[in-house]
Structure formats: structure tokens, C-alpha cells
Amino acid sequence: MLHTSVNTDQQDRITWYFYDNLIAEITGDFGYICTDVQCEDAEEKFRNRLKLDNQTGSLTIMNINKTYAGVYKLQIISRTELSEKNFIVAVYGVEGRYIKVLSDESLTLDPGEVKKPNDVMTWYFNDTLIAEITGDQSKICTDDHCDERFRDRLEVNHGTGSLTITNTTLKDFGVYKLLTTSSSISILKSFNVYVQGRRIVSRATIYVAEGDSVNLQTDVETNQQENIRWYFNTRIAEITGDLSYICTDVQCNNGTERFRDRLKLDHQTGSLTITNIRTRDSGLYLLQISSSSGTIFVKYFYVDLIHAVLGGATDEVSVSVMEKDSVTLHTDVKMNQQEKIVWYFNGIRIAVITGDLSYTCTDVQCNEATERFRDRLKLDNQTGSLTIRDIRTTDSGHYDLQFNHTYLSGKLFIVAVTGAPAAQRAEMKTKSVKEGESVTLDPGEIKKTK
């Protein structure tokens, strides 16, 4: 039904047109009523499908099909004025096309035909004119007419009449209609556009010593986002893009005071700093960033505490190894005497093995975002010793061994990897040996007698 939103008895005449062809008319005193072929000079296009409401003059089209898609014009003549209103009717399930796009992507609505020189192609969004192509000229609605919805994001193709929307947002969801008008016919096509918010997920693991501060970075600018939220089981911090709302800890959730003034939000980036970090602060932190386009960025930070080992309880071992060789870092223990052995490289966990061998991991298995060693690590199931194969200069650094996550035991290996010319490396061999053991250096050839 196409509604007039008036009462018939308050008007002189209500007239309906389909592409400028008279199809229905009613006078305020009901002295004259006609539909379709009953009207003067009208064609028999609708064949008893039209019905006029005598109270309002509203028009109902029954048993509609694609033949009746197009522009209907309502003309109301009262004692004081003449008003007109256009209705663009699209028949869904016949001409309508359903299109799905992710936010931030570009979308092209293609009519699927070549524009003729004299065609006028008009694009509507939810019945609002947004673009028009006449001959070789085109015009796109201004921000005033579009309520700043598209903001220079519309492009038209003069050859095909297609419409491209760049950097789509959730607000671009709706019905787009293309009206193509030539000298002989008008064709209406509709496109049902659904914009789905994009969800981007990433992960990171951060190691920090108890009592230190840790900074969890968003890698964005606050003023380019709608909302930034931080969660640690519950919401612990939030900041809006316009800075109209900012909260941390107990300000976000009454009754929650885990951090007690130890949280700080960066107003420029929304990054979160946790000061004087404690053991109970370790765990999974969730960052959720909502952009104006509808894209949601999600990042998981796993914060793990490195337990500082007390001075006299730590063994420090310096190891020098040639590039491309293998090196084994020995634990000097038996696995069945330990609950867990954990290896760290420059503060990043790279290997774990439990005493009952129920859990073992190396490199990327321990940290999803870390793949430095790429299958070059090997754990000894009997001792938990770590072997690094095909070692590289970038593998130089501190390898920290911890037993059972306790404070009173540990071992630090300072590994220095030195490079050598290819010819020299081919002639050199390296052996790893524990202090107090015997080592045999074999030249690999038979000594000749004089």
C-alpha cells in the first residue's frame, strides 16, 4: 500500500500516476473515482489489481510482480496548494539482489548493462537520491542531502552506470535502487546491501618481572576509534574516541578494586599500563577496539610473570658456539624429579616440559605469535636439556632455565654465536660437553706413517 497520509474529505483531488501515466483518481466529495482503465486515457496495465482507500486515497497494488516495479507519483490538490510525492517500488525476490560486504571494503553495485547515451540513471539509497548520471555528466548528492552519510565515498561509472561505495560502514546497510529512464521505458533495479562488521583477532605474550610495570599497546590512535575497552575477566578500563568517557578499575565496575590505582590509560592511544605488577595480575587481558566503520579489533595479551631468581641460587654459564652448529644447554637434573622445566629466551618462553611428560612444547607451540626457531629446538625427555640446532647469530642472548616456577632455583645460559667464513665452517667441528666429562677430538682421518 502506498499511503497518502491525508484524509480524502479534506482535499479537492488525489491523483496517482505510474511513470506519468494516470492510474487512479478520487475527488474529495467522492463525485469521481477511477482506477486503471476506468480513468480517462488510461491503459489496462494493472487489470483489477488497484484499490483506492476512500478515506485516505491511499493506493493498494495487489498480486504485484516485476512488471509493476517503478516510480509512482502522488499528486494532491487542496484548496490552498498542490503537493507531489514519489514512491519508488521495487519487487523483492524478483529484481532485488542481496549483497553482503565486510566493513571497510569497497562495494560496486553493477546494473549489468551498458548505459545508452540518452539514458538517465538515478541512484537512490532508502528512497533518498544519492547519484545521477545524465549523458556524460554525473552528479552526486552533497553531504547536506545525504546527512554526511557517504562523505565523498561514492563513485559512478559513466559507461555502465555502476555505483561504487568505498570504505563501507555499518550505516551503509539498506536498499539501493537504480532507476534507468530512456525515451521509451523506465527500469527499476534494487540491491539489498548488508554490511557486516569485520572482526580482526591477534595475540601476544608478554613477560614481566614482579614489581615492574608493563605496557599493553593498542597500536591505534584514540580519536580514530569509537571505543576502546580492556578486560581482565571483567572490564577494567575504557576510553571513548572523543574522550567523553574514561574509566579504570573500580570506576568501571563498582565493587571491583583489584588494581587499586595501578592502571593508567594513554589518552592518545588507549594503551594500558599496569604498574607494580603482582603474581595475581598474570593471565589473559582482552583488548576490544570498535571503529566507526563497524570493524572490531580484538587482541589477547597473555601476561606471564618471570620469577626473579635470588642471587646466590643462580648458576650462570657462558656458552660460545659457531654459527650453523648445534648446542645443548644442560639442566643437570632428571625429569622425574621435577614438576616442570621452563626455558626462556630473552624473557620469552620457548620450551616447557612436565615431569610426567604429559605436556611438552617448543617455540610456536608455547607462544602462538613466536616462531623464531622454527623446528630447531629439541627437548630431552630424560633431563629437560634443550638443544638448539642450526644455530644463528640472532639466537645469541640469555637462555633462562627455571624449575617448577620457584624463586630458589634456576640457571642462566649466556649464549654467544659467532660467525665464520663458509670455508672455515666446513673445516670446523664443535662439541658440547659438561664440566668434568671427557671429550675426544677426532680429526676424522688416518695418520700416515713415515
TrEMBL record:
Highest taxon listed in the record's lineage: Eukaryota
Cross-referenced InterPro entries: Ig-like_dom_sf, Ig-like_fold, Ig_sub, Ig_V-set
Record-linked Pfam families: V-set
Secretion signal, residue range per the UniProt entry: none
Domain Immunoglobulin residues, every copy: 96-196, 203-306, 316-418
Region annotated Disordered, chain positions: 426-450
Biased composition (Basic and acidic residues): 426-437
PANTHER family: CD48 ANTIGEN-RELATED (PTHR21063:SF4), LFA-3 (PTHR21063)
Full protein name: Immunoglobulin domain-containing protein
Originating organism: Cyprinus carpio (Common carp)
